[in-house]
Amino acid sequence: MNPGSVALVVTDDIGFPSWDLYELSIPCTVFGKPQPDLADPWYDLRLCSTGQGGQDGSPAETGLSLRTRHGLDDLVDADTVIVPSVPDPCVDEGRPLPPELITALRRAHDAGARMVSLCTGAFALAEAGLLDGRRATAHWMHTAQLAERYPKVEVDDSVLYVDDGDVLTSAGLTAGLDLCLHLVRRDLGAHIANQLARRMVVPAHRPGGQAQFIDLSVPTADDRSLGPVLDWARARLDRPLTVEDLARRAAMSTRTLHRRLREATGTTPLQWLLNQRLARAQSLLESTDLPIEKVGELSGLGTANNLRYHFLKQVGVSPSDYRRAFPRTMPEPSPAPEKRPDESRQRTTAARPTPR
């Protein structure tokens, strides 16, 4: 499967401060470094400058200047276009973005490109009219300005990223990495995205709906105590698990477990279990020919109807359509470990709501 070309916008002619290098480097790391053992071919990354042939900026004002091989004409025919950020004056002072950039973004979208923004890059997509009538996000420090300047955009300041099909936006900094890994997951599957995340030493998957801001100032205890119980739960996703089970394993009350997990991940124990089970189901659909009923059983999502319900709600497609998008090329994973007698009793299973 060829993931296609990725055009990364570099706005070097209107100022490129050194602190914006983080958003620029994220897609370079994810899409620009070949991973032949994971997928061959990998993405074709091109850095596209808004300047004339990669002209120099003023180091005194911008911190650095960049030269690129590609210009805006190379952006238009890309499969995916990413605007990692726009200069601060364009956000804070309303300095206009280059009209040729806005035109190129519209042309790329009209040609069928997937349009992506990280952090303040949403201002460029909004200026091009690509976010009108859509839900979108940016760094929470800039979402009020985005909503005020572009009232046709439904701005959500509470999420890490928004996937609206052919247009995706993310919050700032690390949320941009979450969105880039989400794109790999969409293009090449959960297994490859997870392996890439492991190489980058980051969480394999943070759902876009997770809160941008998590207060980490409250806990004073060593939260490493959560690691073993979460690993224990991941190894038993095919079995009935309740919040009480996790709390008992962690030797803490359910209330303390809920608070600790919320502080560490921004989600509840039940939602964390559901996310893990969905990731397991995605991996099984990509890498095995198991019937849908068996995938639901091994992932802990229960019946085939429950699996379809959660997939349609969380992933946006049915399990069968998802499987067809990823022809199996990997060996089947090892089967889940056998249930031990003391853990096979029937209990109410966490994260298995019945569709209404």
Protein architecture, described:
By secondary structure, this protein is of the alpha/beta class. It folds into two domains: 5-199, Rossmann fold (3-Layer(aba) Sandwich), CATH 3.40.50; 223-343, Homeodomain-like (Arc Repressor Mutant, subunit A), CATH 1.10.10. It has 16 helices and eight strands. The strands form two sheets. The protein has a six-stranded mixed beta sheet. Strand 5 (135-136), helix 7 (143-149) and strand 6 form a beta-alpha-beta unit. Helix 10 (226-234) crosses helix 11 and helix 13 (269-287) runs antiparallel to helix 14. Keywords: DNA-binding, Transcription, Transcription regulation. Residues 337-346 have a biased composition (Basic and acidic residues). This is Helix-turn-helix domain-containing protein.
Salient structural properties:
42% helix, alpha/beta, HTH_AraC, two-stranded parallel ribbon, Homeodomain-like_sf, disordered C terminus, Arc Repressor Mutant, subunit A, 356 residues, Helix-turn-helix domain-containing protein, 16 helices
Mean pLDDT: 81
Major sheet: size, sense and barrel closure?
6 strands, mixed
DSSP summary: helix tally: 16
Residue ranges: pLDDT <50 for 5 or more in a row? Answer: 53-60, 211-223, 329-356
Per DSSP E runs of 2 or more residues, the count of β-strands stands at 8
Strand adjacency order, main sheet: 2-1-3-4-8-7
Global Rg: 22 Å
CATH class placement of the largest domain: Alpha Beta
Sheet/helix structural class: alpha/beta
Architecture of the largest domain, CATH level 2?
A: 3-Layer(aba) Sandwich
Oligomer: single chain
Q: Roughly what fraction of the amino acids lie in strands?
A: 5-15%
Q: List SSEs in N-to-C order.
A: EHEHHEHHEHEHEEEHHHHHHHHH
Helix content: 40-55%
The span between the termini is 37 Å
